[in-house]
Automatic annotation (TrEMBL):
CDD domains, sorted: Ygr210 (cd01899)
Annotated protein name in UniProt: Redox-regulated ATPase YchF
Example of a GO MF term: nucleotide binding
Keyword Glycosyltransferase: no
Keywords tagged on the record: Nucleotide-binding
Keyword Nucleotide-binding: yes
Annotated ranges, domain OBG-type G: 7-276
InterPro entries per the UniProt record, alphabetical: Beta-grasp_dom_sf, G_OBG, GTP-bd, P-loop_NTPase, TGS, TGS-like, YGR210-like_G4
């Protein structure tokens, strides 16, 4: 995670799969101008949201969010979405991933690989028919693995050519070489043990090295697949086939239609329908021309079949499920409101396995330093600093100062 505590979800994929369409649909939000601090700086970084059930109703209160918004008991908590264009296909020709692409990727915490499931774009993103989306999934995984492997090999060389002392461990050199990926020595040790390849890199053959690179990659750059263009029958057929293929069990594949999400949001903005992003239903509220109504009814059939347009789902699957980020509300044990009369103004997205003390440090370093205990505002139970925060906890921190 970046120092400013906000997560970045990277949208990746070859050209013409629908990255920009997904990005626009996800970041097209009915919030006031000026609430888009990122778009002015960098058009490829936008604000998207993850949905979290609001805790305020459990306390018979109404929340007043200071960031994002709350609709019908669902908090929309902001997060950053990045359109990481520039994936260069054609690695087989020795081109590989572009340098800019790699440094942009390094700034993301989790990836959504947007794949054209309709099969109507070839590996380079040119129009075709009957392309197997599995080739795109395999391509990106293999490319990322090669990137990691290259850095891993440098770490091994560093170990082998370095000044060898008694306490010189391979995991130390690898962690140092791979620090940009955010892997620690302990992390490397755990993965080496999981693979059972031992701690002497002289004993590692090419397959072992690649396997280790892949483990480190999947651990530090987790990914979901957005199976896009699912509004087409070709994509639906591919989706059935690929989700039944056990070779792809390791991936989280979310059926998705960027077009449908965009159409529903536009219709909602125009007053034609009531639609809350991510929902599996909507209500027609305006007078519609017959063709607009027919178009919306086709989308209704689609979201009823797949549960939603999938855009919100893909974002949440990435951040909450795959990355394991934990939403926590700072609150007060004697009434949720703070001194300014705001009720649950914040909902923090914390790294997996965060403790109450880390939560306190996230509020402010003074609060972390003065930490006495936390209070679970639902039960009024005291929690020690090692308490592992849980999703939707409402916590007050009691300090010495
Ligand atoms: N049917 C369908 N087409 C889509 C969808 N999303 C994007 N497209 C189309 O795919 C093409 C490429 O989209 P774009 O967002 O520019 O892709 P990018 O190059 O990955 O950013 C455009 O013609 C889009 O209209 C979708 O959900 N369904
Ligand atoms: Mg684009």
């Amino acid at each position: 995670m970046n120092a400013d505590r906000s997560y970045r979800i990277g949208l990746v994929g070859k050209p013409s799969v629908g990255k920009s369409s997904f990005f626009n649909a996800a970041t097209m939000n009915d919030v006031p101008e000026g609430a888009y601090p990122f778009t002015t700086i960098d058009p490829t970084v936008g604000e998207a949201y993850v949905r979290v059930d609001c805790a305020a109703p459990e306390f018979d209160e109404e929340c007043t969010p200071s960031v994002g918004y709350c609709e019908g008991g669902t908090r929309f908590v902001p997060t950053k979405l990045v359109d990481v264009a520039g994936l260069i296909p054609g690695a087989h020709e020795g081109k590989g991933l572009g340098n800019q692409f790699l440094s942009d990727l390094n700034e993301t915490d989790v990836l959504v690989h947007v794949v054209d499931f309709s099969g109507e774009t070839d590996i380079e993103g040119e129009p075709t028919e009957g392309h197997d989306p599995r080739d795109d999934i395999d391509f990106l995984e293999a490319e990322l693995d090669q990137w990691y492997l290259g850095v891993l090999e440098k770490g091994i060389t560093r170990y082998e050519t370095g000044y060898v002392t008694e306490d010189d461990d391979i995991e130390e050199d690898l962690a140092e070489q791979m620090s940009a990926f955010g892997i620690t020595e302990d992390g490397i040790k755990r993965l080496v043990r999981r693979l059972g390849i031992g701690f002497d890199p002289d004993e590692w053959d090419d397959a072992d090295r690649l396997a280790l690179a892949r483990e480190i990659r999947t651990e530090t750059k987790p990914m979901v697949i957005a199976a896009n263009k699912m509004d087409t029958p070709e994509a639906q057929a591919n989706y059935e086939e690929i989700t039944a293929d056990s070779d792809y069990d390791h991936l989280s594949i979310v059926p998705c239609s960027a077009h449908a999400e965009r159409a529903l949001k536009s219709a909602a903005e125009g007053g034609a329908i009531d639609y809350r992003p991510g929902d599996g239903e909507f209500e027609i509220t305006g007078d519609l021309a017959p063709d607009q109504e027919a178009g919306l009814e086709r989308i209704r059939d689609f979201i009823e079949a797949y549960g939603s347009t999938g855009v919100q789902d893909a974002i949440e699957r990435a951040l909450l499920d795959v990355l394991g980020v934990v939403p926590v509300f700072p609150g007060g044990a004697n009434g949720l409101g703070n001194e300014r009369g705001e009720v649950l103004p914040d909902c923090y997205l914390l790294p997996p396995e965060s403790t109450a003390e880390e939560f306190a440090y996230g509020l402010h370093s003074d609060i972390g330093e003065g930490f006495l205990h936390a209070i679970d505002c639902r039960s009024n139970r005291q929690l020690g600093k090692a308490y592992a925060v849980e999703s939707r906890d409402v916590l007050e921190v009691v300090t010495t100062n």
